[in-house]
Amino acid sequence: MTAPLDVSGSAAEAHPESVLAGAGKAIQGRSLTRIAWMRLRRDKVALAGGGVVVLLILVAIFSSPIIAAFGHPPLEFHQDQIDPATLLPKGTFGGMGGEYLLGVEPVNGRDIFSRIVAGAWISLLIGFLATVVSVIIGTVLGVIAGYFGGWVDQVIGRIMDVFLAFPLLVFAIALAGVIPDQGFGLEGNGLRIAMLIFIIGFFSWPSIGRIVRGQTLSLREREFVDAAKSLGARNGYIIFREVLPNLVAPILVYATLLIPTNILFEASLSFLGVGINPPTPTWGGMLSEAVRFYTLPHFVIFPGLAIFITVLAFNLFGDGLRDAFDPRAH
Amino acid sequence: MLTYIIRRLIGAFAMLVVISMVTFGIFYVVPQWAGATPEAMASRYVGRAATPETVHLVAERLGFYDPVVVQYGNFVKGLFAGAQYDYGAGVEHCPAPCFGYSFITGQPVWPDLLDRLPVTFSLAIGAALIWVVAGVAVGVLSALRRGSFFDRLTMGTALAGVSLPIFFTGMISLVVFSYGLGWTPPGGAWTDFSENPAEWAYNLLLPWITLAFLFAATYARLTRAGMLETMGEDYIRTARAKGLRERQVVVKHGLRATLTPILTLFGIDFGLLIGGAILTETTYTLPGLGQYAILAIRTQDMPQVMGVVLVAAMFVVIASLVVDLLYAVVDPRVRLS
Amino acid sequence: MRRKHALAGAATAVLALVLSACGGGGGTAQPAASASGGGAQAAFNAAVTGVFNPSTKKGGTLKAAHSADWDSLDPGDTYYGYSFNFGRFYWRTLTMYKPGPGPEGNTVVPDLAESLGEPSEDGKTWTYKLKSGLKFEDGTPITAKDVAYAVARSFDKETFPHGPSYLNELLEWPEDFKGVYKTPDVDFSSAVEATDDSTLVFHLKKPFASMDYVVQMPMTAPVPKDKDTGAKYREKVISSGPYKFETNEIGKRFTLVRNDQWDPTTDPNRPALPDRIEVQLNVNADDLDNQLIAGDIQLDIPGTGMQPAALGKVLPDPALKARTDNPTIPRLWYVSVIPDTPPLDNVNCRKAIMWAADRVANQTAYGGEVAGGEIATNVMPPGIVGQEKFDQYPSADNKGDVAKAKEALTACGQPNGFSTTMAFRADRPREKALAEAMEQALARVGIKLTLKGFPASSYFSDYAGNVDYVKKNGIGLAGHGWGSDWPDGYGFMQAIVDSRTIRDAGNYNLSVKNPEVDKLIDQASAELDETARAKLWVEVDKKVMEDASILPVVWAKSLLMRGQGVTNVAYNEGQSMYDYAMLGVE
């Protein structure tokens, strides 16, 4: 479930007990994966979402040949397409046509189609990698909290509370505003992308952390963990061999659902002007420029649609995935 | 019960302390790591072509020469004991809670926050009303008619709803309904409720609906899932067997159990929303706390940033406290300990 | 920040005449220089050539709006052109710019003073005689003491950090004077003194010829000592002009109503037509334009021109376009080419940037020929006294000369180009567009530009204007803009080309660090002959261009819209926007 964007962190994921209670009980070794896969295959909507996700990934990977075939380089200016007085595209419908599939941007005449294709890369990269960061932090802290309990659980629980009470967007904007130019062996936009991934991931981990903690808590009480303990297995062994494998399914499900939230987060930061530096195209950045030219529908709608379709596809797929792993909600 | 509340309050307080320290760190310490001197920081708050003496005086006045710990200490002291503000011709006492004076306008921050709170509160309360009623109603109906056309249509819409960024829907709705059709006022329109309730609602209608659309989607989905789960429980069957009318079964037994997670979600959403509906307020240029936060960050007006962040965090903390207390009322099984 | 001059005005006026003649409609266009000209016939540039819709009708409410917040309403603490302009509704200063259109708008006329200032033989003492019958809004008479006090209080930059520092630097302040609040007992009469109720004397450290221009700034607006509340005075300013504050909600709105103590016979410059003036603050800029077009708002206070979305609506529509004016303002938008950052320490590498830049793309980025400005080929904008237009880096169609750029690169020892970083203000869409245009243009010759946006609020303090930051982060180019306080070379150039103004942080001169330029500046400042002085400033301009440390982009123009139902509208060159104090409503 994607949280409405204004809350940035997903409140829905903060208390997912209602859906999770089922997932935990349903975990029964490998056969579950097979059952889930069978269910998923029957879920046409989820498959369609998954298909779009795969398509988007392909577009991101092959953006260069796609742009070469159907568009102009995303950074290239085409000022012959622009009315020098109003700075708006000369052609009707924002200059849309065979030459410029989705029209051109005002002021510099850049090809909107190419910029949207090129922007897919940033959105997906940040969406995925930020989720990886959240999953790593969330899993580590969630397992520790759930498995060891007691004061460790208390401390980690409090930390999660603090994160949930943070006006995240405010912090992210403030932090993104002070990113240095060089560091960690990176510079320019490379560093900026890395920092955005870290910032977004770092602020989204509690949602995964809560789920993992809850699951670990229930797994800890299960017979096979008791059995391992009575056989003298060490904590490390139990965590890695007994607990973690059983967490893969819920983590996968919630990671899939976190990706679109993170994509929206990146888009909001770019929209507010603290995302990736120009001229690298991003969807949020395009929308933020479109605000100044709100009279041009094509300039507003295409980047908005790109965000919408991507987020929707991930949501559909993630939803199907959850249903597949959770027979009770099905 | 009382000890529980006290313990939670202490926890909440500790949380606010942590948050204030982190915020302070970001705005006061990070720039120094980046190499900003006290003079460099002060030169943000002076007019064009200010002389070095002016910059030095301002740096001194804003306390930038003090160690960060002292600056933070002064901030905290202002919160609890109030502060003295030298406005040149005299000294003014800024009573607790004193969030200080804007570095740019010289106005005290606290009255500013109080002034903007009603805007954000109005936005949140109206949107919340719409999204809870619509979301829960749609969720219940969908669950009862599972698999029907209505179910698929509303759940499809709901999924689309959560996938739309508000700065996109907001912009489109403004272009269509305000600039295009002229049905709704343009962005930035705001009338206080006490001045003219009708105009208040009219001005907020578009932001309410846009915001509610996003949230209602989440609530509808959650309600539907919850209802499906509870309606399959044994006690519902028992209730039906007792011969209760279906409406009673749904409302008294089914919905009640479903509402618990909804309540939690609502508390947090509402708290976060009051803390800063940044994107909504930016899109519609509503003079609320979210817009205040963005302006404060853009102009690096540190007292304003500290104030808005702390107030925002406070609302989240209060909301989650209230939710936990309400839990005990809604669900008698919950014991506060 | 502001100020202009004659040439541009005349040129624009002539151009406008041609345009209105062509644009037709049988307009009543009048000779440009006649301030009494103009008419009610809406035509493009009608308020540049004369007074549009002239009227003497009193009454009504003028509705104005501002897309941001005022820096301060306190006359001692404000430094925006719109504030100097608008403030004349509620303050009076010793002198003021002559109201109305045309080049005369650049001259100053007496306001509180009976006549312009009387300099002493050595030019170090200036005396102003006040008119009689001047009163504050509470009826107490305005005396020279109140003006002297206002000047003295503005000295305290800790309390009033926003205002100009000219008088702090020009006057002979006592060593131990720290402002009227910290050292209330120190006698500041060595700097400014009221020798009697109507005589005010300024004592300067060194001769200074343009005192009449300095005292039109609001530091000389009288402030009654017993009503002065320091930094809080902005909340309740005591009026000396035709209007006074009825309400004032800082950051939101304020209302001015007639000040019945203002005596029109003492004030020939202000017609004071409306009964009431309502000002909304922090209105969304796009909404402001829409409301201006629709007539819900009649005056856009910042006076810097319409937003891009509105341009697309206004320019293609003849009826709307006829409501607009398109003056050139004395402001240059440019790129600083910073010689501290290798390989830009080599002048040939800087020249490569001059040659490679695409001036048309840059102009478009800055808003195009109407809203942006004229392509600039050198530093001083038209309108500055004695300005000469010249071009040391000409190219076909102004698209840049790739061959010459490559030659320069070879001469610099970087035949394949190099990489550098360009800073820009991220919250300024035009500067961002400029950075993108530069990136594209320089890529043609192998110069790879990394763009880096910073918040405008700390751009000069922490980033582009911070010497340490620039060096550590290898900032080679930086977006910049400058407008003049004076209509002469000193007023425009000194702050951005004199390397001796450079300090650790908060610099406005980011890139001109040439001892020869400094030497020329000293020569020009010491030159007493006006023509010779102007020539020397042109020399400075040429030297800077040879040094290739400033890449000029555009000499700014703004597209202003006259509000619906507003009378007596004229573009004033002194204010670089409409003359607000003249306005009335139908």
TrEMBL record, chain A:
Signal peptide: none
Xref: Gene3D superfamilies: MetI-like
Cited Pfam families: BPD_transp_1, OppC_N
Principal subcellular localization: membrane
Cross-referenced InterPro entries: BP-dependent_transpt_permease (IPR050366), MetI-like (IPR000515), MetI-like_sf (IPR035906), OppC_N (IPR025966)
Domain ABC transmembrane type-1: 120-318
Membrane topology term: Multi-pass membrane protein
BP term (GO), one: transmembrane transport
Annotated TM spans: 45-70, 120-147, 159-179, 191-212, 251-276, 296-318
Gene Ontology cellular component terms for the protein in this record: plasma membrane
UniProt keywords, alphabetically: Cell membrane, Membrane, Transmembrane, Transmembrane helix, Transport
Record's subcellular location: Cell membrane
Family designation: Belongs to the binding-protein-dependent transport system permease family.
PANTHER family given in the database record: D,D-DIPEPTIDE TRANSPORT SYSTEM PERMEASE PROTEIN DDPC-RELATED (PTHR43386:SF1), OLIGOPEPTIDE TRANSPORT SYSTEM PERMEASE PROTEIN APPC (PTHR43386)
Protein name according to UniProt: ABC transporter permease
Record organism: Nonomuraea terrae
Lineage: Bacteria, Bacillati, Actinomycetota, Actinomycetes, Streptosporangiales
UniProtKB/TrEMBL annotation, chain B:
Membrane topology listed for this record: Multi-pass membrane protein
GO biological process assignments: transmembrane transport
Keyword line: Cell membrane, Membrane, Transmembrane, Transmembrane helix, Transport
Cell compartment(s), UniProt: Cell membrane
Source superkingdom: Bacteria
Primary localization: membrane
Record domain ABC transmembrane type-1: where: 117-327
Transmembrane segments: 9-30, 119-144, 156-180, 200-222, 257-279, 305-330
One GO CC term, this protein: plasma membrane
Pfam families documented for this protein: BPD_transp_1, BPD_transp_1_N
Family to which the UniProt record says this protein belongs: Belongs to the binding-protein-dependent transport system permease family.
PANTHER family xref list: DIPEPTIDE TRANSPORT SYSTEM PERMEASE PROTEIN DPPB-RELATED
Protein name: ABC transporter permease
Organism for this UniProt entry: Nonomuraea terrae
